[in-house]
Design brief:
The chain is α+β, with helices and mostly antiparallel strands. The protein is 46% helix and 13% strand. It is built from 13 helices and nine strands. Strands 1, 2, 3, 4, 5, 6 and 7 form a seven-stranded mixed β-sheet that branches. Strands 8-9 form a two-stranded antiparallel sheet. The radius of gyration is 26 Å and the shape is globular. Its cofactor is FAD. This is Acyl-CoA dehydrogenase family protein. It comes from Streptomyces caledonius.
Length: 435
Amino acid sequence: MDAAFTAEQDEIRRTLREILGKRCGPDEVKAAVRTAAGHDRELWQQLARQLGLPGIAVAEEYGGVGCTPADLALACEETGRVLLPSPLLATAALCVPLITALGAETQRSALLPPLAAGGLTAALAVSGPALATALALTGEDTAGHWSGGGRAGGVQARADASGDGWRLYGEVAQVLDGHSAALLLVAAHTGGFARSRTLLFLVREDAPGLVRTRQAVLDETRPQARIQLRDVPAELLGDEGDDVLGALAATGRTASAVLAAEAVGAAGQALARTVEYVRQREQFGRAIGSFQAVKHRLADLYVQVQAARSAAYYAAWDPDQGGLALAQALEALRLTAGEAIQLHGGIGFTWEHDAHLYFKRAAADELLFGPVHRLRAHAADRAGLFAAPAAVPAGSSGPVPVSAPAHGAAQGAGPAGGPSTTPPASPPAPEKVAV
């Protein structure tokens, strides 16, 4: 595998860093999140026109740039550096792959071109705080119980009496960019208890019975909304026989690589700003960055960030490793942002300073897509690291089970892992060597 960046990838990153450096400083970020949309609409359109950012991973036949998800991940490293508030994650990393994988040809032709052009934004609505579960980041629910499971809660779907459409009713909280997205992809439960299944539905912003309320959140750069569906007309995405849970899991693998790259960009920038600060801040007549204890702390952070960056780049080319990369990146961002607060002193967590923005992003992302230990546990389960060894039938030749070590007596271990009742064998006599 050639992991070197292409000239096109380097150019995208350079151009994106230049644009965001001019238009997305800390003051601009704080101003953008206070708007009704939660982001700078003019900047979003500029990124769509000049770089085709929303459609970077959309096929050219649907009006996209035709690049790969790896290119989207590399671009998101730059958006993570400045904590860009935008519909990019919800639209390009979550909804576009689902529409591409499940949508009928008419739906793809109607939706993907405006999504790729930035004129249409979308949001994925899954029941409750279950986004990480729905995307199979922290576990796999093959029955789709997170969507309601046929019981109270979640979102329920029923076919119209005419059989030509669907109706949705229920409530969804914590929908990323749900307050401003013109198109909602709603995961709903249908079929009752006997034929329980989860399907995805398209809901337009002007649908009757749809109520959207922007929520107060920890990280304002990731705006969220509460969606209420009161007998809302909806269009089924794809066909009733589609593997919706499989498509969500595949989307989760790609999204985890994108999120890992974004977190690495944020961690790298938080570290760079902290290093710049300790070079200027003086105490006892010298810069605090010259103290050995501070140097050691910054060196540890540098190792964490570089390890996370390597994992994120690897996951960009192999999305199956996205879960581990996301865990590494979220942990690096949390540690770096926490140390940034500490080394900046009391001002670090005030609204006047931008260090708190990175700290809140770290905490909010781990709440939404983690926690880290569950990401790692699920990756270990998928890899079969802790799977029980297969039993070997008596009298058959085969590998010795792990629970019964072949050299248990010599090692002082019994069959059950406890002390052996058999005395250890005497060591062999040394061999005589002629001199």
